[in-house]
Amino acid sequence: xxxxxxxxxxxxxxxxxxxxxxxxxxxxxxxxxxxxxxxxxxxxxxxxxxxxxxxxxxxxxxxxxxxxxxxxxxxxxxxxxxxxxxxxxxxxxxxxxxxxxxxxxxxxxxxxxxxxxxxxxxxxxxxxxxxxxxxxxxxxxxxxxxxxxxxxxxxxxxxxxxxxxxxxxxxxxxxxxxxxxxxxxxxxxxxxxxxxxxxxxxxxxxxxxxxxxxxxxxxxxxxxxxxxxxxxxxxxxxxxxxxxxxxxxxxxxxxxxxxxxxxxxxxxxxxxxxxxxxxxxxxxxxxxxxxxxxxxxxxxxxxxxxxxxxxxxxxxxxxxxxxxxxxxxxxxxxxxxxxxxxxxxxxxxxxxxxxxx
Amino acid sequence: xxxxxxxxxxxxxxxxxxxxxxxxxxxxxxxxxxxxxxxxxxxxxxxxxxxxxxxxxxxxxxxxxxxxxxxxxxxxxxxxxxxxxxxxxxxxxxxxxxxxxxxxxxxxxxxxxxxxxxxxxxxxxxxxxxxxxxxxxxxxxxxxxxxxxxxxxxxxxxxxxxxxxxxxxxxxxxxxxxxxxxxxxxxxxxxxxxxxxxxxxxxxxxxxxxxxxxxxxxxxxxxxxxxxxxxxxxxxxxxxxxxxxxxxxxxxxxxxxxxxxxxxxxxxxxxxxxxxxxxxxxxxxxxxxxxxxxxxxxxxxxxxxxxxxxxxxxxxxxxxxxxxxxxxxxxxxxxxxxxxxxxxxxxxxxxxxxxxxxxxxxxxxxxxxxxxxxxxxxxxxxxxxxxxxxxxxxxxxxxxxxxxxxxxxxxxxxxxxxxxxxxxxxxxxxxxxxxxxxxxxxxxxxxxxxxxxxxxxxxxxxxxxxxxxxxxxxxxxxxxxxxxxxxxxxxxxxxxxxxxxxxxxxxxxxxxxxxxxxxxxxxxxxxxxxx
Lengths: 357, 531
What we know:
- The structure holds two protein chains of two kinds.
- Chain A is mainly α.
- Chain A has 14 helices and no strands.
- Chain A is globular.
- Chain B is α/β, with parallel strands linked by helices.
- Chain B has three domains: 14-92 and 172-249, P-loop containing nucleotide triphosphate hydrolases (Rossmann fold, 3-Layer(aba) Sandwich); 100-168, no CATH class; 267-345 and 431-530, 3-Layer(aba) Sandwich (Rossmann fold).
- Chain B contains 18 helices and 24 strands.
- The A-B interface holds A 1-4, 6-7, 207, 211-213, 216-217, 219-220, 223-224, 226-234, 340-341, 344-345, 347-349, 352 and B 24, 26-30, 33, 69, 316, 318, 337-339, 342, 348, 350, 355-362, 366, 369-371, 373-374, 379, 382-384, 386, 405-406, 409-410, 413.
């Protein structure tokens, strides 16, 4: 249908305009505040592709972002607002760190066990708001948001009491055993095997959501829960399962990040990857196939901002301006609506005239 | 077309003209295509057309709820811009919606003065409000108790409150959107008398309807709309029901339903003393006993909200039974999930299409597959068999003549009638042995309704049992083989045969004016299975 094509086209245009407008604002701010704006802009926009190491930085950062984006996309597709991806990711990082330090295992087995423990942790954390919702209809938005802070303190507690390296000035664990880490992909960078895992995860998520019974019922429940129940779908069970899948993705992502990128646990607060996952899922309209694009975009401007931070007088925080702008413009349903409506009206009129001729 | 003579009144000519109105919605649907519409002082003017023809849109524009792309509105000879319902009311145009816009927990007087409350020391002056209500009620001959709570009123009285609400604000033109859709025959007689009184007092009434007999009964002139265009403007006296229907649909429609005598087979659905209570402990269904056999249609007549909906939802597992027994093909439904019950051969058409019938954002195929996607036939290994699903969907789209631009079209872009066809295509194509059809033709156009009714009969002829719940009395009377009447959650009448049963008589049972002996009914109904 014509109007449907217009709607689709406008979804893309809306996203692009939102990104362009936010970038535009950021650029204006940089021009206003920087003493050497052209250098700052160059480093911000082109910096990430000026060396292989920098480009690998973009990809490294995109891995956890994609895992969390996938987790949130799966959950949001079902119409849920469970934000526990953050807590799942963070707690999984801590338990993975424990496993990487405390277990004595041979090389290949050790990272596999670490990943499994991280995944299980993610499922467990995500399961709390999911079960509260299923059993007592507790609002998952509230319970998951609160849960994230409980996760922060439990993870900190585990690290401090079990594996604290008191020689560091900050809360950090002792070093992981060398048997635990994931192999590197590109020498001289930190790009690790997680990249392969994340590509597999993207494909599995897309197939699950668009090609399986489970995915079909998840999407239908997301569209209309009453309709799904009346058609005979097991709504409660499906919602539980999809949240646990989300937890597994976030947990696996946390574990991969831990043993892929680091040699010790040294987060000082929530990583924000879970919340970034929400931003990514919204830009990607919950479609797993689009999640990596959104994740790489976000990771690119973050890496660019980081480079700019180090090479010019503009601080990293300019990123928040861009993110806020994108989120507001994409979520605003009526943004560019008048243009779309005008096109729809014109097209309908043309068709009417054709019919009458 | 304006050459006909009209009744003598204070002012002649048109009170209202709408010229060249075009309205295109966000999804590209052209609801009105250069529509012309005019009404005169002191007439009852029927606005007729199928659902989706554009009547409601036209009236929404008149009442300031929608803005047209083209066209102009002349009110009492002057061009006006109606930007909001408030502006419409100030001008003297009032609308009584089909779904009442009342606050159920407030009294009649409070509802009527809402937004123009008389005040005393900054608080609502209830006495004054009641006096105002009485005055307007007396003036227009629409008596009502100002202190009654709206939730306790019958549907007919609620509608009266709506009309008073409009009249107290000084409406000269009243728009009534299918006012009789929810009324019994007796209440319909009342409202017609009231409308005639209003007309004689000089008010202009626009009467939206697709019930032909009502047009003939009380309307002076008629405007017929089809596919968003004005098809005809006539004096009602000079046009027959057949002609109106032909103009509305654009082809001949048989108003009679053709069906042969039922050949009842085995008992399929059996209810014994089924009761249901809501969370507040109110009994919504009282000891319902019913038997339906394969090959017959059992109709349930009754005003909406008398337990029919609860009954339908009990049978298909949406609610759980509190007392009594429900058996399908000899198996109790107690403790069974909705899918279990559907697997037992039950199909249901819900009365609330938008909530239960379809997922509007999803495409047609997804909507059709919702009750069968998990079956082996539609799966290949771990994946859904998309090819097969699309083939089945395409087959049903053509079999049920669903008007769309392909099976990928989101359901939200279909008209109400076509949406219902999607529901019916899904529910009727699963080889059901029992069909619970709850208001299957509500709010859909004549053509789609005809298709749904014929399909129900065909399923019956193929041996399925059909439970038909409908607020459209003519529909239940013409389709059913046997009939029960619901009133206040109980069966108050049972008719073994519908021969000679009149709408008026049925209406008396529906209103609770008459009641059969309950014990006797139960015996008669349950005895069915032994024949």
